[in-house]
Specification:
Layout lengths: L1 E15 L13 E15 L2 E15 L1 H9 L10 E5 L2 E2 L9 H32 L5 H84 L1
Antiparallel strand pairs: 1-2, 2-3, 3-4, 4-5
């Protein structure tokens, strides 16, 4: 038996069940598990055998995250995943409390609130200037700055937020498409196995009945 700290085993598996995944709003009944473990090498009957010694980390991913992981090498910091088990300890189950739509709505409300505050500041500034007997160049410059800031928010930040929302919805559509396709494939596969099993059972029963009938006829003769 050989053991070394660098020896490892890695595996992917598919499991059923609705569980939240970090970095995704979509969960349709199954996800992918990645497990990394230390390994033991054994030599027996002229063959090498590799087996798990102890688990190091176990993470889960949606089917879309898995597809991105294996097709997007050198992709920045990587792809989000959900840690289930690490360093001999299970990790508290992750719960996704905020959807993308809720997050974008919060961003939108925050931007609108900032615009309203800027508008109120301009209104207050104008009110003060209207009551003043003398309006200087500094006052005009300050008012222009406030109006410019509001204009930037209205012309740039809101359209940018709208564009990001559209991009995110396209991304979510692709995620749902992959998850739904995988879910449907699994259902069709399972139904196909059930149908095949039912067909085999029917054929077995028919054959058994035929053999028994022939045996009965033979005994009667």
């Amino acid at each position: 038996m050989e053991q070394h700290p660098a020896q490892g085993m890695i595996s992917f598996s598919k499991v059923q069940g609705n569980r939240d995944c970090f970095g995704s709003d979509v969960s349709l009944g199954s996800h992918i598990i990645l497990t990394v473990s230390t390994a033991i090498k054994r030599r027996h009957t002229n063959n090498n055998y590799y087996s798990i010694d102890r688990n190091i980390v176990k993470v889960r991913m949606t089917h879309h995250q898995f597809a991105e992981l294996i097709t997007s090498l050198n992709n920045g910091d990587g792809i989000p995943c959900t840690i289930e088990w690490m360093n001999n300890k299970s990790v508290e189950d992750y719960k996704n409390n905020d959807s993308t739509i809720i997050e974008f709505n919060s961003d939108y409300q925050s931007t609108l609130k900032e615009c309203m505050e800027q508008l109120n500041s301009i209104q207050n500034n104008i009110d003060q200037l209207s009551k003043s007997s003398r309006v200087g160049k500094k006052d005009i410059t300050n008012l222009q700055r406030l109006i410019s800031n509001l204009s930037t928010n209205l012309k740039s930040n809101l359209p940018f937020l709208e564009s990001r929302f559209h991009e995110e919805m396209v991304k979510k559509y692709n995620q749902v498409k992959i998850e739904a396709t995988t879910w449907l494939d699994n259902k069709l596969y399972n139904l196909g196995l059930k149908q095949a099993n039912d067909n085999l059972t029917c054929r077995f029963l028919e054959t058994t009945a035929e053999v028994l009938s022939q045996k009965s006829d033979s005994e009667n003769e």
